[in-house]
Amino acid sequence: MRTARYDAVTAVVEATHLKKRYGRFTAVAGVSFNVMAGECYGLLGPNGAGKTSIIRMMYGFSPVSAGRMRIFGLDIERDWRQIRARIGVCQQDNTLDPDLSVADNLAVFAGYFSLPAARARARAEELLRLFALEKKRTAKVMQLSGGLAKRLMVARSLINEPELLILDEPTTGLDPQSRHLLWEKLRALRKQGVTLVLTTHYMEEAAYLCDRLMILDYGKVLVEGTPQSLIKQYAGESAIEIEGVDEALRKYLIENRIEHDVLDQRIIVYAEDSVAEDLRRNFCMERCTFRTPTLEDVFLHLTGRELRE
Questions:
Q1: How many degrees, rounded to 5, is the angle at CA 185 between CA 201 and CA 140?
Q2: DSSP letter string over 234-258?
Q3: pTM score, whole prediction
Q4: pLDDT per residue over 44-65, tens digit each?
Q5: Which of 11, 56, 156, 173 stands the most exposed, by the fewest C-beta atoms within 10 Å?
Q6: Strand pairing partners for 243?
């Protein structure tokens, strides 16, 4: 794996007042963020929040409607050929060639980057070993399980030894074993200096992989930070689930400006440990559950719990 040429204080991705419109609909509404060299940066949000639109602008698949997107200091609209040679993209949908074998999918894709035949073969062998696909080298794509196909897609995105790897929901539909295997491979790539940008609906995945992340909704940035800083800021030290929607409890929470979510049959309170103890003494008459808050608490608290189409 070649070493990234950017140091840790350099922004590999710079998005400034980025907008994406589809006719009258605005999918991305003035988003700004930087991704620093060597970090893993996550884009989180409900369906339709704008994550995939941002990803597609990032690798030049979808034109920028307004604002600016720079990759490696280059403008994505003007210099996309130079940029594409230095990035890898693993799309959400399976884009493997079903008529080719596992090894041939890698070899054909290497041709798009004009890799010499000998180097392409050697690189394909490296990736087959890295993603434990050696025994499937001659298998057709249609014979692969979902987990194997996803591993091949990630392997293919690395054929050109990219400095930036963009992954759109890389583990959707995978079983826990396949998901954890892929997590470890991505962490290993990051240690080698590859910058990662990913979208995911798995909060555990984001918390495990991402150095920093943003949560989007309706095309706008709600928050940005490290997973732990966001948990501390928006969910506190304790999450307390209290059965029954008690009016006295609601009044206490509102008067003391304590963050909470009211559900049909329970209230979830996000608070410091001292407040948690007060709640235990005064309001836990029936069933209470005390637990450590998670990134999923932050996500649901900020974006809401109602279902989205």
A1: 85
A2: HH-SEEEEEES--HHHHHHHHHTT-
A3: 0.90
A4: 999 999 999 999 999 999 999 9
A5: 173
A6: 266
